[in-house]
Amino acid sequence: xxxxxxxLVAFRRDPLAFFLDRGSRAGSPLERLSMGPGEVFLVCDxxxxxxxxxxxxxxxxxxxxxxxxxxxxxxxxxxxSGEAHAxxxxxxxxxxxxxxxxGYVPQxxxxxxxxxxxxAHETGFDAHHATARLTxxxxxxxxxxxxxxxxxxENLLIEAIQEVEDDLAADMFRVLPHLPWxxxxxxxxxxxxxxxxGIVVTRARTRAGESSLLAALEALDLSxxxxxxxxxxxxxxxxxTTGSAAAWVLHHLxxxxxxxxxxxxxxxxxxxxxxxxxxxxxxxATKSQALVREVLRLYxxxxxxxxxxxxxxxxxxxxxxxxxxxxISPWHxxxxxxxxxxxxxxxxxxxxxxxxxxxxxxxxxxxxxxGVGLLELQLVALEFASAYLISSAGxxxxxxxxxxxxxxxxxxLRLAPRLKSxxxxxxxxx
Length: 430
Description:
The chain is of the alpha+beta class. It has two domains: about 1-70 and about 305-360, Uridine Diphospho-n-acetylenolpyruvylglucosamine Reductase, domain 2, CATH 3.30.43.20; about 80-275 and about 365-425, CATH 1.10.630.10. The protein is about 55% helix and about 10% strand. It contains 18 helices and twelve strands. The protein has helices at about 10-15, 15-25, 45-55, 65, 70-75, 80-95, 100, 105-120, 125-145, 150-170, 180-205, 210-220, 225-255, 255-270, 285-300, 330-335, 370-385, 425; strands at about 30-35, 40-45, 60, 125, 305-310, 315, 320, 325-330, 390, 400, 405, 410-415. The protein has a five-stranded mixed β-sheet. It has a three-stranded antiparallel β-sheet with strand order 4-12-9. A hairpin with a 3-residue loop joins strand 10 (about 400) and strand 11.
């Protein structure tokens, strides 16, 4: 017999399997979920997903599930709505669009090479441990300029994130409140973690150079705490979303040596005589782009998102009440056999432009850092493949772990220098 909480046990046991199973079997665009007294629906139709993500905020907007993230990222563009959100989004989108981000190609490539050279001296390394730090350095360079984040700052930020992310994920769909003493302990833990993150942000700002992104945020006449929230959001996204995807990029290069060789050849084709990748040639590097897009299909870092109905309306053939929660799962949409042939297979050659492909969301509120994220991931593929043979140092790979974002499992890898001399891998020695 079904009741208000019928789906909570299955969801908490395995959220990824739950979303994929319910979404793939759904007989209507909106699948009603029993996860509490309120209305909760999983959106199963890709066209309806895009309609929802483009809807006016007076009809559908961010809701109570997203607001739970404010315990960590405060009043940032992730949690804001209305004109405050739009103003920050315009600034971030302008500064992080791929065209402007292409100006950072030399700096990003240098950071990748430095990291990879250090990893090559190790007997083995975990892909996500390495790429999370790498992408954190990249976004910090874009935000503040080179060298604004020290090793100690990196460690403190990553430690603080790990302290709170699982608690946040567990509380996201919690119906009953914690016992008072448990709630107090969690609140203390959350404040301590946020204080640690704030220390890192403050230090980085004091070391910042003439950064166009930081200067653009400051030009909005935001308070120090509002700027700190926005910077913290960007740092967390740089650590988690792009870092997680980059780990899978390296993993699949290790699994497919032929693909790795092809991307090494592509790297040579888009580089100048000194081995530096040229931003103007990167759009022609289609194999590395396809690799990145397929990784983002199989392992979307943002594996779920939510919206909330702001007024009674009809959607997907159902009448919805104000306050109804709409859950959208890229994990489900990217693996639903109704939309993809052999969805579990890694096939970079497949098309990634259909309505069921939304690794960055869709519409006017799609991820503002999409351009720089795609650029980073492409450069990771090109730089590593050009200079190294990548191999797996472990056995079968577990599924990713769903938290606030999708966390990769252990992905142990090894690097060995390529013997063939090319302009790009010769540049590593300079």
